[in-house]
Amino acid sequence: MDEAIVRRLERIESTQAIQMLPSRYALAVDSRDIDTLVNLFVPGVDAGKWGRGRAGLRAFYESVLVGFYRSQHQICGHVFDFVDEDLATGTTYCRAEHEDGDNWVVMIMTYFDEYERVDGRWYFRKHLPSFFYATNIDERPCPPFAHWPDRDLNPKHFLGSHAYATWKTFWERQDSAAVDRLTHQR
Description:
Blueprint: H1 3-30, H2 34-38, H3 54-65, E1 71-84, E2 87-100, E3 103-118, E4 121-136, H4 165-172, H5 176-182
Antiparallel strand pairs: 1-2, 2-3, 3-4
């Protein structure tokens, strides 16, 4: 078979495999399928203070997922670019809802992803969330955009639109008075 065709088929297969990762992640989280969840990540994944590897990642997710009863992660958009044959970077938009006692908390977020192909299979290398807001479903999002009753959420993770250099540059070029008419929540 022509080598160009083989490369194109490999790229198509890689594209399909990477496109499935965010949806597989959402399903694994919402169904509390920890085995599937940790196996979506490279074997030597950096789980921060939880250590390296899937055992550390398992400990992290078990500590997080016990904090709310039901969840529903809705993947709203996913784009990515190949860095080379075995690496890619991407962005995934997500709306996640969480049942926490009498509260139903909605979070709007973006995941900044890195993907790596290991032994012919694509995995997350990094899957880092940046939150636009978290609030009870009955409330309007407002500063500091981290409202989850009885939770101390780290505001450094709530960058929202400010995570994009292009967004900041766009609004810096605009008239300040016009921006003030649109938002009081900069």
